Amino acid sequence: MATIRKRGNKWQVQIRRQGIKATSRSFLQKSDAERWARKLEIEADRGGIIDQRELRRICFSDLIDRYLVNEVQEHRSTTTAVVLGVIRRHLMAKLRAAELSSAVFAAYRNERLKEVQPSTVLRELGVLHRLFQIARFDWGLPITPNPVDGCSRGLSGRERQRRINNPGEIAALNAAFSDCRNPLLRPFAELAVATGMRRSELLKARWADISSETQTLHIPDTKNGHPRTIPLSREALSIISRLPRNHELLFPLSANAAKLGWQRVVRRAGLKDLHFHDLRHEAISRFFEKGLSIPEVALISGHRDLRMLFRYTHLKPEDVARKLE
Questions:
Q1: pLDDT per position as a tens digit, 45-67
Q2: Angle subtended by helix axes 167-178 and 255-269, to nearest 10
Q3: Same domain flag for 255 and 319
Q4: Do 64 and 47 fall within a single domain?
Q5: End of a domain among 29, 51, 73?
């Protein structure tokens, strides 16, 4: 903010503002002092005056570490931590914060596009954009404009449309589950398809959260932070009834055991490009195929953004064609 005061026969202006080097100037006329002060404040608001001394003292890796400690702990998904772990190991993490620019991240984008899918690069750029927004507005660092702005232009990640859509794949999975040493993995995957629950939600599901009276399952801890209660179909209830009730959790498995177990099942089944999260896509698509409305499916899946819900929906054109008949 500007401070204007009379000193002798002159008017002195002092500008002190976070992220801007303190400066002062004297004028014979007060109107000239006010005009100059307004000009500097407008330039500061536009990001035209930046004191980069603080940004020269810290590395990009310092920003990442601070974000991991102070912000990522609030995220219920591990994706952000994984993305930042990749970026933390990159050479650009050693750069001073003052050296970061859109050119740096454009080069990183082009490099990553040679290694991973555009959707992965978009996800990484999104995390970086959020990091710099937090650094600017919450931490008060003079990072303006956001150096990631514009780096995602021209990128369009292909949405996954993987479904378990033929009898051969289903038979292969069943055979792979039969050879599985962990008896919980088959019902774990089956319940994912029957309910559309995420892997993390299934791992936290408790017997105490099931209501036999209303035939529902309450999910208090979700990825988006909004608890929900989902109806249980006859199929879901049948799967649950076959589970051993020797623990407070339906599936007393670690996240790593569930992940590695599923990967071994898919590999044993000889299937390609089938992720556990694809079972959620499969479930939501089946809900629509059964005739459920958009609000009903959103109630089960927990999607609050219909655009995201539709990204998870992959209807079969041949089924729609039969309905048209």
A1: 655 445 567 788 889 999 999 99
A2: 120
A3: yes
A4: no
A5: 51
